[in-house]
Amino acid sequence: MYKFASVLRRLRIINCASTSPLLRYRTLLHISRMNLMTISQLLEEAYNKHKIVPDVVDKFDTHGLLTIEYSPESLVTLGNTLKVKDTQKSPKIQFTLNSPNQEEELQVEQEDRFLLVLTDPDAPSNSDHKWSEYCHWIAKDLTLNTNNAQEDSLSTVLDLSKATHIVPYEGPAPPEKTGKHRYVFLLYKQDPSVKYEPPKDRPTWGTDTPGLGVAEWIKSVGGKSQLLGVNFFYAQNEVQE
């Protein structure tokens, strides 16, 4: 958690309007040279510890850091807890590609498009999955910076104003006395041959089968979509007793 928070702080330096070009470059260079194995292990440990794998998705190879900021004080950091009231508006999303020259480096072309998802696998509670997973958001046709020789290309702040929101953002609303819910963001590389029809309903992602969600939707309508990155937080209703 500490190491990931450190990366987040560096990404915020990059995004600050007052940051000089030189500092921005040096910060990106530092992130790009971080030990990929250390970052990958950190992410995998968090996914397993909080059961994102296998509750939401199967094990996958991460291709970068997905960072989410509701406000400077409300960052999503692999399982931290945020207040419901602070998550009612769609957040700022950033994706930073793994360092260049890695064997599994993701190649991003100008025509590539990306899909962002937010899902709750604990609806209405962690022990009762009759509404799970609950679809909170699907935004498609996002773009990333293309791969090139410039270090700036590693990191992209997603322009959500240009996305197609096939399921509009709905903030967390965990019911009373249901404990903490996991809210999971996932970023996919789109398959250009499919249209990504929205699920017919938010609960169970329209499958009418408790416990099913984004993974089944991707299998059904997503063709060869590729999962690139995941991040998540917890939130709960203030009434628990």
UniProtKB/TrEMBL annotation:
SUPFAM superfamilies per the UniProt record, alphabetical: PEBP-like
CDD domains with a match to the protein in the record: PEBP_euk (cd00866)
UniProt superkingdom: Eukaryota
GO molecular function: peptidase inhibitor activity; phospholipid binding
GO biological process: regulation of proteolysis; regulation of Ras protein signal transduction
Gene3D superfamilies hit by this protein: PEBP-like (3.90.280.10)
Protein name as annotated: Carboxypeptidase Y inhibitor
Organism the protein comes from: Australozyma saopauloensis
Organism lineage: Eukaryota, Fungi, Dikarya, Ascomycota, Saccharomycotina
